[in-house]
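Slide 14.
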Amino acid sequence: MVARLIPALCLLALPVAARAEVNWDRIDLAAERAAIENYQRFDQRLQDVGWKLVRGNADFCDRVIPSIGLQLQDLASYGGPAIARRALGMTGDFAVQTAARGSPAGTSGAFAQNREVVALGALDPNRWEAEDRLDWARLKRAHDHVDAQLEGAGSIKIAFADGDVANPAAVPVCATRFELMGDGRKAVADGERVVIGIKFEAFSYDEDVFAGVVAHELAHNFLGHTAWLDRNGRGRRNVRRTEREADRLMPWLMANAGYDPVAAQTFMETWGKRHDGGLLRGRTHDGWDERAEFIAAEIPTIRALIEQTGKADWRAYFRREVDPDAGL
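Slide 15: predicted structure.
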């Protein structure tokens, strides 16, 4: 579930070197490994927060799937696979990218970052054909295969190059994949994924506040906004209503994940003050202060529900801004 597709535009110097035969005398392998590991640190943070949100809200999502919280990497998707292979000390292409904190993969202790993978169930993904570089399709195929195996059996045996095997059992989560973009400052959702650029400012915030941006984008997916806008049009009024709805759902999702829902308001007050001008020009969003007020207004209801039932059931008690069935 939280496995994501490595975007074709990562990693730093690798695409340049891949355009010709590698001159190894000019390659700083330590620097290449450091670049990969820096990317993975950002990715790990995104996957950790994403996991808490999709796991904590699984009781209320329309689409729930089994997951172990594992994200793979395929060096064929890099700009310079041979460079990445040597920098990481790998002989094949598949390895662990992240194991989300608190997930079955994360708690098993077996899925160390960059640990080389040689089998997913009965299949070795390294044997699948791939392009010479920048091939994201094989990694998607591997993640889809893992999801299918978990859907059918509830677990999957994963073999490593050192001969060990892990077989963590899956748990239910809301169906969304999280992707870190190798460049960019935006955060978007498309109904199936949440995609955040590595330069998005909120990566520097405390975790509970950073969770606000992930929860906002996730809310778009949970509330079906992409499909709704496809049916009803992306006029300014419609977009603004969906943005307001995603803002208001943020603290519900965060509370169910164990975060203080007030952190959603803190995110908007922190990020919004710095970025409100560009948003207001199109008036597709409310002003940051209005957005923070809308978020704050949800918190008393959330706290009361958690005190009474232990969870904030947004499917039953959240007031929609749009008719989810409109336009059918």
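Speaker note: The longest helix spans residues 29-56.
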